[in-house]
Amino acid sequence: MLWNWLLIAWRQLLRHKLYTAINVVGLAVGLSVCMIIGTLVRFETSFDGYHEKADRIVRVNRTEYMSGQAPWFGPVTGLPVGPALAERLPDVEQMVRVIQFLTSVERPDGQVFVQEVLRVDPNYPQIFDLVFLKGDPTLALSRPGDAVLTQSIARKYFGDGDAMGQVLRLKSGRTLTVTGVIADPPTNSSLRAGLLTPIATSVSDQADREFREREAQWNSSWLTTYLLLRPGVSVTALEKQIETLLPSVVPDYQPPKDAKGIYTFSLSLQRLTEIRTDPVAGEPGTPMHLIQGMLLTGMLVLLVAAINFINLTTARSGLRLREIGIRRTLGAKRAGLAMQFLMEATLLASLAGVLALPVTELILPLLSLLKIEVPADPFADRALLTGLLLLPPLVGLVAGLYPALVLSRIGVATGAKGMPAAGGGLRTALVVSQFVIAIVLAIGALFILFQTRFAATQQLGFDRENVLIIHRLPADGGATRYEALRDALARVPGVKSAVLSAWAPATGSKATMGFRLPGQAATVHLRNEPVDFGYLETMGATLLAGRLFDRAHGPDTMRLANEPHERAEANIVITRAMLAKLGAQDPAAALGQQLRGGVVGEPARQQVLTIVGVVEDFRFSSARVETEAALFVVDQSQFGTALLRLLPGDQKATLAAVEDVWRQLLPNDPLYRSFLDENIDRLYEADARHGKVIATFASLAVIIACMGLYGLAAFTAERRTKEIGIRKVLGASVADIVRLLVWQFSRPVLLANLIAWPLAWYGVSLWLEGFVSRIVLNPLIFIGVGLAALVIAWVTVAGHAARVAVEKPVRALRYE
């Protein structure tokens, strides 16, 4: 009996090749999309979970509170934080500190490489899982100057030879001795540096000096601290213990609730496995709400494919009434007919599951062309493959339920008459559901792409294009050496201007200073931007009032206090956001006002700053945060970055010339460069990737829905063949017939628009609330997507409608 059911099912599939192809391909694409998105989600949510003690490892984060500014949250702490928490809190089993930096490393043959290095406490291998291929995990990082290399880095420096005991030379002249080789960390690891060395290792004179100066400073945050908690410890309870502990270990500490406007901070804990899905601003990662959005997208595309499959399966089954009647006449039981329908639907769905594997292979290269990277192998995840194998039969069973339960109970007389089966309302509802999903996804994808582009390019306060940034200027350069480098770079053909600054926008760096504003007794903390002459002109700042910095004005340069009774003075340029703090209604009203104060944490360094200009607000970080009030000051003591405005066009020769100048002036220092627009785009990388994923798979959802619509149109045209012939005999034209059939399928799409628009409006509005600077919800986008869906439906149906409409009436009347 089973063989008979399979044989009949197979013959049915071969007899109706069009419907078989549409059903199998549509469901296969849906399964493939679900598999790819499942791989992306599994990868993002699996970060650092491979560590045996991952559930007990937390990172210490810091929140700073300053009057006049929103709290600043970051993943860095000071040197004394870890030891104090491990010593004073019994619930903390161990702590480890991590200092991440880049340096130049010389290979034994003299070749120099830029290497990412982690300076860590010696117990790092006891907290994080490292697979030692050579060396002793308990001793490899026990002495200053030890170095543990990953296998790939060891091969880069020493080839296939034995790396153990070999010596690496840093650009500072310090040496490291290889004491261990470990396996490369997996791709889902957040700590991926290729070289580890003890935190006490001397890497340069300046680094050693800074380490000594900061060793007892709680307010100097520049490293990452991890804690290993004892089993069963509550993170929330430990945070309360830390809150209670801080006043007793931090000099002059005031809790945020009692600070009354003075600078203070608090500490919080973040689980290691949540760092990737809840990244701090500027960190690599994908926020959980974006992961949930991708997961929802995959489920919706699969739902569209499943609806498509169910719709066509139930529609075709309605044409088999005469077959059912004949089989019932010959003695077929209802249970046998039900099993037959379930077998056919399950077999068809299983074919789709098998086809999903090669379809996935075809989609992956297309995603690469769209710059959507799938970092893990979908076929390496057994759970996903198991789901792919189990899901198609389940969809087939659901699709076969209607014919199995409804059509199998049709009597002999009804079946013999071939009366049309019910289910038209169900099919219409399913078509509406398909297009609701496709329209919502399309609208959501468009708004995500528009918003990320808007955030990265509009209302920045400066021109982001063609700006080359040279980071990490040598700390021992000095003002004279920096100016020589700037002037040499400015003479390079293709360089329009070159300036110096402390840092560049979108890098996450900032300095905050406390000031007393005119007529105000309280201290207000403001963002301080040390820049060069010509910086604002190079950046394309918009002047609102006053003037920009000019070398002809001596006070435009910060004059530092040389004697205790002296004070540092300078002219400054402020941003528009400062006007509200000054109580000035007009930019011109701020000119001439003076700010008095000093650097946070250094009350002895007093400054008097006079406003000489006002420029439009700069967006230094993401559009998700409020625009900061900032002041620009020419302070040569703070320089560490060079910015070059390049002429547009082919810039390869210009970049090569810049590298030549660097090698001539700084032959022993690596060149770290990037473009400003790329740095800004990186702030919205996760959102942009999310938008591309939704847009790509929304397009596939539309294609799947149209495939189903095409199949339904063919089914409808076949079922209404005799009706169309009678209409033509009675005088209906070809246009009338086409209009009739097209309108039949236009109504579900129009209804889908009415349902999808408010759903999309709500979802997009909710997402846009995460941005301070955002686009408006343009109704034209909703209308445009709706019209596009309607036109696609028309094009899909019109071919069938025209083909049936031009048939001679006599053929239609002889149908069946």
What do you see in this structure?
The protein is of the alpha+beta class. It contains 24 helices and 22 strands. The strands form 3 sheets. The chain has a 6-stranded mixed barrel. Strands 14-15-20-17-19-18 form a 6-stranded mixed barrel. A 4-stranded antiparallel β-sheet has the order 13-21-12-22.
Helix content: 40-55%
Report how far the terminal alpha carbons are from each other.
31 Å
Number of strands: 22
Mean pLDDT: 83
Which runs of at least 5 residues are low in confidence (pLDDT < 50)?
A: none
Provide the β-strand percentage band: 15-25%
Major sheet summary line: 6 strands, mixed, barrel
Widest β-sheet, arrangement of strands: 3-4-9-6-8-7
- Coarse morphology: globular
What class would the helix/strand composition place it in? alpha+beta
Q: Tally the helices: what do you get?
A: 24
Q: What gyration radius follows from the Cα positions, in whole Å?
A: 34 Å
Topology readout:
Elements lengths: L1 H14 L1 H29 L11 E9 L6 E3 L6 H8 L3 E15 L5 E9 L3 H4 L4 E3 L11 E5 H8 L8 E4 L4 E8 L12 E4 L6 H10 L9 E6 L5 H15 L14 E8 L16 H30 L3 H9 L4 H36 L12 H24 L6 H6 L6 H34 L9 E5 L6 H13 L4 E7 L9 E6 L6 E9 L3 H5 L3 E4 L21 E8 L2 H5 L4 H4 L3 E6 L2 E14 L14 E5 L6 E6 L5 H14 L6 E4 H8 L1 H35 L1 H9 L4 H35 L10 H27 L3 H5 L3
Parallel strand pairs: 4-9, 6-8, 15-20, 17-19
Antiparallel strand pairs: 1-2, 1-10, 1-11, 3-4, 3-7, 3-10, 5-8, 6-9, 7-8, 12-21, 12-22, 13-21, 14-15, 14-18, 16-19, 17-20, 18-19
Helix pairs in contact: 1-10, 2-8, 2-10, 2-11, 2-20, 8-11, 8-13, 8-20, 10-11, 13-19, 13-20, 13-22, 13-23, 20-23, 22-23
